[in-house]
Design brief:
about 260 residues; two-stranded antiparallel sheet; mainly alpha; single chain
């Protein structure tokens, strides 16, 4: 450690990995407003925060496969925090959001801009549960869309209003992976519906597979352009977190072949 530098605390590291999950790899630099905001919040330089994000990037196996090394002088604490997040996404990420809200003297619903006007008459544990659900949904959307550069990973559509953070394992079926970015695909609304219905799936080698049902209507221009033309093509690659192969296997079982 260089003279004048102070060791990162676990609290600071948690806030850093929280940010790491929210922004694309190419935006992990000292000029990024989100990096600057976190640096101000924990009284460190934006360069120091950017380097810490690079330390976490060096622990990402998918980035290594793509030849992206990150900053490899990571610490024992970096590895510990990374492992905790990878093993328990939902609990760790919400705890990170609570810590961020506390640092900002706010609440998790306010820092995530959650509209709670229709919960005025809901109190106690039920209100707390609904708040967490909405925060989870908001966070998952940000994480997944960021992971795919805010574009549909099938068509490349880049209009945020048309994009959905689609769960590979349904929200209701797997409570432990609701926030896991490896359980998400950025899809436009049409393909999200088709994916949810099992009319589209993604194979283990990250290729798009469409149901034969579409070929029965292949003379329709819209069917050909929106579905058949994408059959067998590779998924647009994410920034960091690739879809979990085991999750895809489960979805493939629901595919209407």
């Amino acid at each position: 450690m260089k003279e004048g530098q102070t060791l990162w605390t676990k609290e600071e590291s948690i806030l850093a990995i929280n940010l790491y999950c929210k922004i694309p790899f190419g935006q992990m630099h000292s000029r990024n407003p989100d990096v600057i905001d976190l640096a101000t919040l924990i009284d460190r330089s934006s360069g120091a925060v950017a380097r810490k994000l690079g330390n976490f990037a060096s622990l990402d196996p998918k980035l290594k496969e793509r030849g992206i090394k990150g900053l490899e002088n990571n610490s024992k604490l970096d590895k510990e925090v990374w492992h905790e997040y990878m093993q328990n996404w939902d609990e760790q990420f919400i705890e990170g959001e609570k810590l961020l809200a506390k640092k900002k003297h706010s609440t998790i619903e306010k820092i995530n801009h959650i509209d709670l006007d229709n919960l005025k008459d809901v109190e106690g544990k039920e209100r707390e549960r609904l708040v967490i659900v909405r925060v989870n949904q908001s966070l998952f959307r940000r994480i997944v869309l960021s992971n795919f550069n805010y574009q549909c990973c099938i068509t490349g559509i880049k209009i945020p209003e048309l994009l959905v953070a689609s769960h590979i394992l349904p929200w209701s079926k797997d409570k432990g992976n609701r926030l896991n970015p490896k359980n998400g695909l950025a899809l436009n609304s049409l393909h999200d519906k088709a994916f949810d219905c099992g009319l589209i799936t993604v194979t283990e080698d990250m290729k798009i597979k469409v149901s034969p049902k579409f070929y029965a209507q292949q003379d329709m221009v819209s069917i050909k352009q929106n579905f058949i033309d994408f059959d067998g093509k590779e998924l647009i690659a994410p920034n960091k977190f690739y879809p979990d192969v085991e999750f895809l296997k489960v979805h493939n079982e629901r595919f209407k072949g």
